[in-house]
Amino acid sequence: MTAGLELEDWVERQCRRSAGFMAKSVSAVGLRKERPGLGQVVVPARGSVLASPVPAAWDPEPDYFFHWLRDSALVMDAASELIRGSSDDGERRAWQERWRDFVGFSLRLDRLSGRRLVAGVNLERRVRSAMRPHFRGTAELASIEGDRLRGEVRFNPDGTLDLLRWTRPQHDGPALRALALLRHLPLCAGETERDALAGLLRADLAHVVRHAGECCAGPWEEEAGRHYYTEVVEAGALLAGAAWAEAAGEAALAGACRGTGLRLEAGLEDFVRGDMLAARAGEGPDGALDSSVILGVLHAGRRDSRHGVADPRLLATLDRLGEHFAAAYPLNRAHPEEAPALGRYPGDAYFGGGPWFVTTLAAAELHYRRASLAGADGAADLARGDAFMATVRRLVPEDGSLSEQADAETGAPVSARHLAWSYAAFITAAAARRLAVRAQATK
């Protein structure tokens, strides 16, 4: 818990702290991670983004020393917010350099080959017996080529393939990266930088077109199916990508993106359950109540009245989540007058299933985004967003560090420490708050 500052001042201070902590996950070339069970020593390359820079080994903290496509896209999208919002030339240049390195690293991942990795090398001999149940096997690794790379979910931050079993495929990563690239494009400093970014963007959009709406694992990496989160970010990426491709004179890509994006957008109605939105197609409202619905709309950047921040069904979904977690978590029951800290979904058991910073910050950001809309009841939404932000403040340690979760009873940090996504979520929520405050000042 931090005290002594007005909320607005605290938000700005925590935003600066979050930026500093988040930077330690990007191009962390001075770190080293040993995985003796795989015979690996991993040193991050420039442009890689660690989900967490803590070299844990499920002891008990999870090993997040990987470059996830999803997490890295969200982190670099937050970096663009820092570039837009900073008055410090040095800070802007540093984040621009990280962005250039990120694009270069991402393009190098496209050149990986599972066949080359296993050719003439007996990888299994390096794997200790305790790790063999978790090793993917040479046959699976050999199949990872070309288009399959974008369904890989995560890579070692040294730019090599992940040797461990994980929930695959997942298709939200390329869509999220495409959205981050599109939003960063106006900030590119030169033609060389723009050309590299555009090459990566074309490949990401083409992948999303090919795999849009396919059954895959969702953002929590647990169940395969049709996930609202994945399909709303795919739709957002393709429709925004169509406008970019059309302006660039790439008619074929624009047409493919628009046609597929509109089909996905229409398919989002499959997730409607009465007055709310379900996380998975084919499930009732009780079985599919999930904070990923809120995250998906925010990450897609949708402002529409249907499947956007102005959609009353999205707000109804958030209200249902709030009601559930207000009753489920002891730390919320101890503060019934405050906005509840939110978890992922009812029944979550991962590391105790406590509140996540990214989900509680998403509630704040949703209200801030709504407060910026013309004709909205901005003052009420700004106040509600601040209520969720005040709850986040209560859970943040004095040093400003953000974990993945907070303990459901004590509020103490739980699961991965220094989660880069948590810092990114704070930065984007703070940026949304600034826009909301400015919008209210002009009314």
TrEMBL record:
InterPro entries: 6-hairpin_glycosidase_sf (IPR008928), 6hp_glycosidase-like_sf (IPR012341), GH15-like (IPR011613), Glucoamylase (IPR000165). Residues 165-371, 385-430 form the GH15-like domain. Pfam families: Glyco_hydro_15. It comes from the Bacteria. GO terms for biological process: polysaccharide catabolic process. Its EC number is 3.2.1.3. It is an enzyme of class 3 (hydrolase). Keywords: Carbohydrate metabolism, Glycosidase, Hydrolase, Polysaccharide degradation. Belongs to the glycosyl hydrolase 15 family. This is glucan 1,4-alpha-glucosidase. It comes from Marinimicrococcus flavescens. The lineage of its organism: Bacteria, Pseudomonadati, Pseudomonadota, Alphaproteobacteria, Geminicoccales.
